[in-house]
Structure formats: C-alpha cells, structure tokens
Amino acid sequence: MAQTAETAATLQTATLEVRGLHAQVEDKEILKGIDLVVPQGEVHAIMGPNGSGKSTLANVIMGRPGYKVTEGQILFKGEDITVLRPDRRAQMGLFLAFQYPTEIPGVSVVNFLRSAYNAVKGEKTSALAFRKRLKEKMTLLGIEDPMVARYVNQGFSGGEKKKNEVLQLAVLEPDMAILDETDSGLDIDALKSVANGITSLMGPGLGVLLITHYQRILNYITPDRIHVMMDGRIVLSGGPELAHELEAKGYEGLRKDLLGEGEE
Question: Which of 17, 89, 123, 217 fits a 20 to 30 Å CA distance from 129?
C-alpha cells in the first residue's frame, strides 16, 4: 500500500495543467481559453484541423520566444511555469518534439545528445559513460550506429528526423513529453516504426501530450483521453473512441454537430 501511495504522489507532482490559457502570436490571439490536465503516466491526444492552435499550444507550454501569454497559467509539478525560460522548463522534465526538426550542420547526433543531456540534467557526463547510455537507448529503439554519427538532421529523411526526436526523448527521460505532429510527413512504415518507438518509452514515469491531425497514429498509440481543438479552444474531450468518430464525420461534421446544425 505504501508503494501505491508513493506512486500516486509521484504522478500527482508531475502533472501538466493548463488553466484558462490565452496566447498571442504577432498580436493575433491564437489560444482563446485552454483548460487541460495531463497527468504523468497518461497519454492525451489533441486533434484538430489546420490553424486550430495545436502547435501554438505546444510552443506556449514549452515557452518558445515570440508566443505571448496574455491570460491564464501553465503549471507543472504544482509550480507556475508560465514565465520560465524554455531551458528551465526542460530541466524540470518537460520535452518538446518538433513538427519540423531543425538541421544542425557540423554537429553530430551523439555530440548534440550529450550536450542536451548534460544541460538538462545539470551533469558533466563523460563521453564513455554517455555513449554506453546512448547505446542502450539505440538498442531499445532499433537505431543503428551510422545515424548518430551523422550531423543532426542533415540529409535525414522525414522518418529519420522523427526517429531522432524519439531518440532524444529516450535519452533525456523527461516526465512529460509534448509530441507536435510527430506523424506528419511519414509513410506507413516510418509511422509504424516511430509509433513503436514512442510506445516502448511509455509507462508510469512518462506523460505524453500527442498532437496530431489524423487518427492513423492512434492505431499504434492508444490514448487515455482525446481532446478536440478548434478555433483556439478545446471543444470536446472523450476516450479513444472519439478518434473514430472524427474519422467518420471529419472536423466540419463535428463542428456542425456541436453547433446543432446536424440535427433535423
């Protein structure tokens, strides 16, 4: 019973909570009052059409410059992180996988990951010790040595870029991961490989906020909750079955239902 209570306490402290969040980009309001709670150990998916504010939400949670919070709060582990720098949020255990990973010429994947690990963990891990840790994660994800010897994302295919993001997730071991359209631009085989990699990392120590347009990645990653986002707001939340409803009706069909226009 003591172990159960301890686990419950851990999950509680690593919860991500968004309260009444409004945010602007270049003086244009994009988020118009978001309320969301994602506990550690759960997978929540945010689905919505283009321009609904999904990626803006991810960037605001992570504190990306250029995104201005005008109202509301972001809390993580019970602490208000709304005004914290991105590096401090990462050190607390937040992680963001980008929709469009950036190329970094001249910097190998292994050196980039070691620098990121030391910065996030506040450590100075030796090259040998880090290489051993990295190899364990590569084996888990089925990633070969040649990929980590290459420059970060330079010449990578879409699938390789997303696998590299998942490798970062594995190495950094955050408490909460925000995956911004990790499935975008992937063919069926790459999607399955990336999704299986994410699934191998899931467990009670990791909360996931998965942002996607499509239901297809949810064939491999089953969320605990799905939230539908439209026009800067979460308009509907439900269980995994909600993805199939969206697949059948489309976002416009759901919008009409919510407005009562679908009724006879």
Answer: 89
